[in-house]
Amino acid sequence: MFRSLKFLWCYAWRVDKGYLISLVLYQISNSLTPILIMIFPKFIIDEFMGENDFHLLLQLVVFFTTGIFLTKLLSSYFENTAFYKRCIILERFQTELGERLIKTDFENLEDSSFLDMKQNAEKFLYANGQGFSFVLDRAVNIIGKLFIFTTIFSVLLAMNAMILAIFVILVLINSIAQMHLKKRYADLEMQKNPKERRLSYLNSLLSDVAYAKEIRINGQHEFFISKLQGVLRELWLFYRRQMQLLNYSQGILHFVDLLQRGIAYLYMIYAVSRHLITIGDFTLYINAVATFTDAMNDVLDSINDVRQYSIYFESVERYLNLPMKIHAETAASVSFPEEIESIEFRNVSFTYKGKSKQALHKVNCRFSGKEKVAIVGENGAGKSTFIKLLCRLYEPESGEILINGINIKEFSYQEYKEKISAIFQDYQLFSFNIAENIGLQNEIEEARILKDLQQLGMKEVIAALDQGVYTALHKDFDPHGFEPSGGQGQKLAIARALYKDALIIVLDEPTAALDPRAENEIYNTFSNLVKGKLAIYISHRLSSTRFCDTILVLKEGSLIECGTHEELLDLHGLYAELYAMQAKYYR
């Protein structure tokens, strides 16, 4: 628990010390108000029942009301200041979390245990939607309540030491019971995280326009609703058990409150009847007991909240300290070459996490930096894995990948990313404007974007749009957004790759959804635009490989053939077999 508080305290102190100072001052000033409200009636009633001095009564009223006004004013000021500064810290932290997520190794994003850990970490940092540093706020809240206790303790001690001791015992019993129930509640939270993540996924499917056509046309709504209902039923069991725990918790809390107030009232009635205390004292003690009970319950809630969410802190530490094997290598031993002479895979093998079979097995190949290279093979042959390793989304399990004879690990990852561009089969166009989708930078050269689009045959399409390249893509945020066709979308993705002006450009089946003629047109256009650079193509349609200088044929993770189109046909191997199978459909 203390490690989690230390983490938040140190982070907030590093970003903006004013937040913590305002938070503490808010709790102190906020604690003064109930103390004044508790004491105020005693002095008024005692004076009224005694000397009944009007001027003194007036002074007391002015003094206490002014004091209450000032404490509330200060409390509001420090609360608003703390809220403003908390927003600054939240913005900083969200940025750092976003950077961390972007830089985490790609394999983590395909690991369900990482995604569960990320969700647990977010539950600690955002406390189930209750706001950043909720845990820290609740901890500092205890400071304010302790300030109240120092005052109330002396009041209750003056009333009766035995009753105060009974109160303390009841508080301890309540505290132990609450901690036990909160622990069980938190355990249920951890268990239901995967279910909530699945629910979020299903809800996103139902609201995502990309899936809407398929769900509606194929009449799949009943299937998806049944999936949704199944997850909701599982979650309902968790919610019911959590509700039962909350009922037990509240029942114990109210029972202890009843005992405290009942004991106090019985004693004070006895004390007043025996003239042991004044009516003013009676009022003071009544208010003190009520304030003590409310403050004690608030402290217990704060402690239990901190304990509950601190259970997730282990996930925060693991998430923030997760080693980044690829991004960690930022100190480059050599600069990336201005020109690529050769790329070589030397005995490269790779196995996906949780799999026993290798996706690539001892792959050896070499090609020059200005070739057009095609990678072909049946599904599951290892084509996309080959590209992911070249793009450094993964690291080889064994072997090495060399550029100009230098292991790619020797290059700065940031610099390496700038030299390679890829268009994947599942490429994404974002709900930004067209220029931002192509440039993916804050500063964009419009002339270059227009040139690339013109070369790809998109000039007339863009010219027909009211805002040109600044027209929004999709209608998520703009009802007049542009919805590109399949071919137009692929051309925008290719324009993005061209704009980057990288030395290596990869096309990983981005035209799979197009007809052969449209695919051939895009490949021919792309081939002319990337002359002098290394272009790597992946395609199931082997007719598009004829213009390539080198063709790599993969089967079950192994490289079994390598050569030109004519050379591979002469081998009468797998490539020739696949080519013949496809060619017969076009005769």
Automatic annotation (TrEMBL):
It is found in: Cell membrane. Residues 343-581 form the ABC transporter domain. Its main location: membrane. Keywords: ATP-binding, Membrane, Nucleotide-binding, Transmembrane, Transmembrane helix. It comes from the Bacteria. InterPro entries: AAA+_ATPase, ABC1_TM_dom, ABC1_TM_sf, ABC_transporter-like_ATP-bd, P-loop_NTPase, Type_1_exporter. GO terms for molecular function: ABC-type oligopeptide transporter activity; ATP binding; ATP hydrolysis activity. It holds the Pfam family ABC_tran. Gene3D superfamilies: ABC transporter type 1, transmembrane domain, P-loop containing nucleotide triphosphate hydrolases. Signal peptide: none annotated. Residues 133-308 form the ABC transmembrane type-1 domain. One of its GO terms (cellular component) is plasma membrane. It is a multi-pass membrane protein. The chain crosses the membrane at residues 20-44, 56-75, 146-173. This is ABC transporter ATP-binding protein. It comes from Clostridium innocuum.
